Structures are given as structure tokens and as C-alpha cells.
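Bench notes, afternoon.
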Amino acid sequence: MKSLFTLLLLFLAYSIYCQQSTASKQVSNFTMESPQLKTTKKIWLYLPKNYSTSTKKYPVIYMHDGQNLFDAKTSFVGEWNIDEKLDSLNAQVIVVGIETTDKRMEELTPFKNIKHGGGNANAYLDFIVNTLKPEIDSRYRTKTNARNTIMMGSSLGGLTSFYALLKYPKIFGKAGVFSPAFWFNRTELVDLMKQTKNFDAKIYFLHGDNEGDPDMIPDLNQMEYLVNTKRCECKKLNKKVLIKGGQHNEKLWRDGFVKAYLWLF
């Protein structure tokens, strides 16, 4: 039995290794040092189809879990097909995907949770703002202001995307917040929102009604309410989308990406 199990693991590993990449030719990757995190990060980059033949500048979306965005070969449980979706729209945007590893819970949570730990998102965001973004802006034609700098992510990535708007309001002006794990830092985020004065970021909230977390919808509703107390609802800077039957998985986020992108832009 043990030998059979070992053979099965080897077969699965070989199948993953041999799987063909599904990333489009618009996608490339590179690695860079992160002094803030004391590690090396792999970065995925999507450029618009007409990038090489144009001279214009582009907005940039920074997304977590870069390994899941473009390529089935590197994804954990299915990719988001970001490149194919943007290609089909002839989208005029650059996407930067940041690798997450076994340190995901640490890097994508702003404050330490008594039960689960974590709480290293400040260093992670410091890396994005002060190391990665300057490199992207220097190497590519980007629109560098907050209105054209967006952050998107799901689950813990949704939590940190929302937090980034509060931490760096002059850097990130929009966010796609998918199935946010607000439960992880509920108390701290509520307190932070109550202390926030001016909040003009544009936010697209997405969640399903079958995600398995009974607190997700109440948490999201509470955060949306707090956001609305900081500005006039007439500005229509929030959009909240509930997907019936939507579960906490890549399919929900993959299927919801295009509508989020179009609304944010």
C-alpha cells in the first residue's frame, strides 16, 4: 500500500511537471529580491497586446497569488485565465502578479490573529510600494498615480487589498476585493475604518452566498457600511456583487474578474 501511494505521488508530480503552460505570449516572469520579506519573489507580468507598438502609458493592477493568475501549470487548483480574458477585451492595462508561498498567511494579513498568527502584510505591502512598484514604473510605461494603480485579490488577498487602500491611499486608488477574509482581523479593521477620515478609493466587492463562512456576508456588509460613512453614497464608488451558489474557489473569482475589471475602469 505504501509503495502504491508513493507511485501515485510520483505520477501526480510528473503530470504537473509535464503539463503544458497555458500562459499567453503577453505573459512573462522574473524574480527580484525583497529586503522587506528577506526572500526572493517571483513576479508575473502581463502586457497589453499592443504594448510593443504603442508609446502610451498604462494603468497597473497589482494582484496577489501570481502563480494562479495566468498559467494552469503553476496554479494550485486552477488559474484565473487573466491573460486570455484581458486579451479578448483588448484591455489597455498592465497586470503584475506577486507570488505567494507557504508564507501566504503571514504576508496577506495586516495584524496578528491570536489563534492563527500572521500579521506581516505591512512588510509585504512595503515590498510592493517601495521595491516592486518603482521597478515596474522604471522598466515599463505606466500611469503612476493612485487613480491608475489598482490592487486585487481573493480571500486573504481580498483582506490585504482592502487594507492597502487604508495604508497607502496615495498609492492605490482602486481595489477588487473578492471574498475578503475580514474575519482574520475584524476588530483591527473596524477600528481602523472608524479612525479613517477621507476615503475616496473605488472598490468592487465580490462574494458568493455558499462560501462556507457564515460571517463573511455580515463582515462585508459592516465594512461596506463603514466605508459609506466616510463619503457620500452619491459618488457611487462602491459596488457589491453577490453570486448565488458562489463558493470560495478560483471559479468564483475567475468568473467575476471581467465584470470587476470593467467596473473599476
